[in-house]
Design a protein that fits this description.
- The chain is mostly helical and about 400 residues long.
- The protein folds into 2 domains: about 5-210, Growth Hormone, Chain: A (Up-down Bundle), CATH 1.20.1250.20; about 215-390, Growth Hormone, Chain: A, CATH 1.20.1250.20.
- Helix content is about 80%, strand content about 0%.
- The chain is built from 18 helices and no strands.
- Helix 6 runs antiparallel to helix 7 (about 110-140), helix 9 packs across helix 14 and helix 12 (about 220-240) packs antiparallel against helix 18.
């Protein structure tokens, strides 16, 4: 989610000189994002099988997801800071090889402890990869198409959530959960060859060009982008994490898969819209996404027991959320400039923090107040997000000037 100087940027072998996107290179990054999300989320759909295979409870098997998130949360900023001077493609390949190692160990391990260690290192690889992808995609594209390049590179995320995880869950039931992780290892080998053949390399930063964490954090616009990311992702995950009990309260427990499919399809459509418009309308798209999410939350609050309204509101929610990662990563990359990788590492950390905190907040709300407390809580967060976006019109989410 790059970091060389402008001189190195212009001298590096890259298709930026043309007016076209390097589709083959960006598709490799999209596949990397796909594998990252699938590695993270697949255990959630295979918990009973994994628990049986490792001889542990489903609650213990659920910690495979937790350790992945912890690894990503702890590693993103330190690793990105330490590797500012490393050439970009070897660093990208290191992260990808980390997935190959972790998924292969998961596929063959009979030890719960060893599998937990593998999952932690998979999260470490994810933290590094997410810090790289957005900046890498931007460096491969001409200036006026950088946002679209990031959108293409990020399309693997909604594809993994909408189709990869359900397909992996189906395959897990058919051929076994270990075979699923083995298939991901095979896909990762293909990705390594693809990166070596199609993705250009870039220089890291020289010692004099490297930024400190403090200098990037205090750069105008970075903190508003991080705040907006935190508020939006926190609101999303409070509802998404506890969507099953929310739907159960509406009498739609048996339709959870269909509701999530509506969300996934709408998210894919959102990615396409954002990819087309982001280089000209980043600020407007962020504002529209926040307002749409707010309208969806309001509809679920007022008419959350009406199935037709639930489907429509979830579709609007998907439209709001699908392109948000691209919006926030692009805002961060453009605001940070040459320090984009370190800024992206901060974004990764904030994103994972929001996921973890949302699980806690959502659990407390559910236990103490019931699912009816979700929508008003979301609206409070989204109003704060909207206000921050509105006032960040000079840095972070600047107004577009003619020409």
């Amino acid at each position: 989610m790059s970091s060389a100087s402008q001189a190195a940027f212009s001298a590096a072998p890259t298709p930026c000189a043309s007016d076209r996107l390097p589709w083959l290179s960006l598709a490799a990054l999209a596949l990397a994002a796909f594998i990252t999300i699938l590695t993270e989320a697949l255990p959630a759909g295979l918990l009973p099988q994994i628990a049986g295979g490792l001889g542990v409870s489903e609650a213990a098997a659920g910690q495979l997801v937790t350790l992945y998130a912890v690894g990503s949360l702890l590693a993103a900023i330190p690793l990105t800071t330490l590797t500012q001077g490393v050439r970009r493609r070897p660093l990208l390949l290191t992260a990808i090889v980390g997935f190959l190692f972790a998924n292969t160990v998961t596929a063959v391990s009979g030890s719960y402890g060893l599998t937990l260690v593998a999952r932690f290192f998979a999260g470490v690889s994810a933290g590094l990869l997410w810090a790289l992808v957005a900046g890498y995609a931007a460096r491969m594209a001409p200036e006026h198409l950088k946002g679209r390049a990031i959108a293409v590179a990020m399309v693997g995320t909604p594809l993994a959530l909408s189709f990869g995880v359900p397909a992996g869950t189906f395959l897990g039931a058919a051929i076994g959960w270990r075979a699923c992780f083995g298939l991901m290892s095979g896909l990762t080998v293909i990705l390594i060859a693809w990166v070596l053949a199609a993705v250009p390399d870039f220089a890291g930063q020289s010692v004099g060009e490297r930024r400190s964490l403090k200098s990037v954090f205090t750069r105008p616009g970075i903190r508003p982008v991080l705040f907006v990311t935190l508020g939006f992702v926190l609101a999303h995950n409070i509802l998404y994490t506890y969507i099953a009990p929310f739907l159960a309260a509406a009498g739609m427990a048996a339709r959870t898969d269909l509701v999530l499919l509506v969300f996934g399809v709408a998210s894919l459509f959102s990615i396409w819209i954002v990819g087309v418009l982001i280089d000209r309308r980043l600020r407007e798209l962020t504002l529209i996404s926040t307002v749409l999410f707010g309208l969806s939350a309001a509809a679920l609050w007022i008419w959350g027991d009406v199935p037709a309204v639930v489907y429509g509101a979830v579709g609007v929610w998907g439209l709001a959320f699908g392109g948000c990662a691209t919006l926030f990563q692009t805002a961060s990359a453009k605001t940070a400039g040459p320090a984009a990788d370190l800024a992206q590492a901060m974004l990764v950390t904030v994103w994972n923090t929001a996921i973890a905190v949302a699980g806690v907040i959502g659990g407390v709300l559910l236990a103490r107040f019931g699912v009816g407390a979700f929508a008003p809580s979301l609206l409070i967060l989204l109003v704060a997000t909207l206000v921050m976006t509105l006032i960040s019109h000079q840095h972070g989410f600047p107004r577009q000037h003619p020409g």
